[in-house]
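User: Here's a chain of 166 residues. Predict its fold as tokens.
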Amino acid sequence: MSVEERRRAQLQAAATESWGEEAADTLMELVTPAGQEMATRADIQVVLAALDAMDERWDERLAASDERLAAMDAKWGERLAAMDARWEERLGAMGERLAAMDERWSERLTAIDEAGRQRSETLEHRIDANLERGIKEAITAQTRALVVSVLVAVVAIAGLAFGLAG
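Assistant: Prediction complete.
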């Protein structure tokens, strides 16, 4: 039989008049509200058993998830190790190719440097020869002009000397 709210309020008022407000409040806390039943120990046992069963199911699910995650982790670990090995192999091959290219470029640049040095020396010798020839030609031309000038002067002086003497 359920107690309606009006009757609960009457009970609290009567308890307050008879026993005081504190005792009436304690009594009202112990009496269930209208339309509600008190849970029995059996009810609580059923709820606890359901919670335990649910807890076990969650433990099983989590254990299965842990196993799946461990398997995935191992699988991905193997895949990443294989990828890492392939990359190491490829990078090693690229390193060898780059070393070979570096060697070839070094040889080419050395050959170009040697050819440039030889051309530079050849050009230097040609410039020296042309400069030397130009200087010799200039000295020869000046010497000829000086000799001709001196001869002209000697002939002129000789002509004056003969002209004055004679």
